[in-house]
């Protein structure tokens, strides 16, 4: 009788130990996953936009990539037109599902990757991004700084006339149809140019520059809400 009782107690002890170990393992695993998810990108320590990158990735406005177990942001990589459409839709919280089946009929619509198509349709339908003169969107093409200024100036409702664009020695290089938007986005300090007092309108936008723009827009919106 004692043997059966001892065996029962031993069995219960083993089962209890297994349950405890399982719970501990689950907690450890959960903590590891959470820590990995919250790890900052490994390639932004030397970026002047580090704080902005951390903010926009945390808010889900821009994405990172996991390569060989490490998280990358690729701050100096050029931004494509497809990517900026996605970022813009996320920033403005546009319901892209409403545009999933909207066929706009632009020339290269069939060639656009599915991951960007709904965002591009939304951006075009709402007028934030325009087609090229040949009625193509060119989702994989890099976007210039002057095009970026045109897109994000329409997001800002406040109009100012501070003349800050006059300090840029190359502002005259801005295309005439982007000039007004560029002046506005510079006056609002959403885009501030380079340390050598150039704006470089034809230069392609980088991911760290886009992160800075979004970071400043978030601050702009927060300040605009203050009565």
Describe the structure.
The protein is mainly alpha-helical and 227 residues long. Among the domains are: 1-38; 142-205, no CATH class. It is 48% helix and 3% strand. It is built from seven helices and two strands. Helix 3 packs across helix 4 (114-125). The longest helix has 37 residues, at 2-38. The radius of gyration is 25 Å and the shape is globular.
What does the radius of gyration come to? 25 Å
| Shape designation | globular
What portion of residues belong to β-strands? Answer: under 5%
| Separation, N- and C-terminal Cα atoms | 81 Å
Biggest sheet character: 2 strands, antiparallel
Low-pLDDT residue intervals, each spanning 5 or more residues: 19-37
Structural class: mainly alpha
Total number of beta strands: 2
For the largest beta sheet, what order do the strands appear in spatially? 1-2
**Mean pLDDT across all amino acids:** 84
Relative helix content: 40-55%
Question: Number of DSSP helices?
Answer: 7
What's the gist of this structure?
The chain is mainly α and 227 residues long. It is built from 7 helices and 2 strands, in the order ααββααααα. Among the domains are: 1-38; 142-205, no CATH class.
Task: Sum up the structure in keywords.
two-stranded antiparallel sheet; 48% helix; 7 helices; 227 residues; mainly alpha
Reconstruct the topology from this structure.
Blueprint lengths: L1 H37 L11 H9 L6 E3 L2 E3 L8 H12 L21 H12 L19 H9 L22 H12 L19 H18 L3
Antiparallel strand pairs: 1-2
Helix pairs in contact: 2-7, 3-4, 5-6
């Amino acid at each position: 009788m004692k043997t059966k009782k001892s065996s029962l107690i031993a069995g219960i002890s083993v089962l209890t130990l297994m349950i405890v170990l399982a719970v501990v393992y689950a907690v450890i695993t959960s903590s590891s996953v959470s820590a990995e998810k919250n790890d900052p990108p490994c390639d932004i320590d030397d970026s002047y936009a580090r704080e902005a990158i951390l903010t926009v990735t945390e808010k889900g406005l821009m994405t990172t990539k996991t390569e060989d177990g490490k998280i990358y942001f690729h701050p100096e990589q050029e931004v494509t037109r497809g990517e900026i459409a996605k970022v813009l839709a996320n920033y403005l919280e546009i319901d892209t599902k409403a545009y999933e089946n909207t066929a706009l009929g632009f020339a290269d619509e069939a060639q656009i990757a599915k991951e960007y198509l709904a965002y591009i349709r939304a951006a075009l339908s709402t007028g934030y991004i325009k087609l090229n003169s040949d009625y193509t969107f060119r989702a994989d093409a890099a976007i210039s700084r002057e095009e970026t200024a045109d897109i994000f100036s329409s997001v800002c409702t406040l109009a100012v006339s501070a003349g800050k664009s006059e300090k840029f020695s190359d502002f005259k290089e801005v295309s005439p149809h982007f000039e007004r938007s560029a002046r506005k986005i510079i006056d609002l300090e959403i885009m501030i140019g380079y340390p050598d007092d150039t704006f470089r309108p034809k230069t392609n936008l980088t991911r760290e520059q886009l992160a800075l723009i979004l970071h400043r827009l978030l601050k702009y919106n927060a300040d605009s809400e203050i009565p």
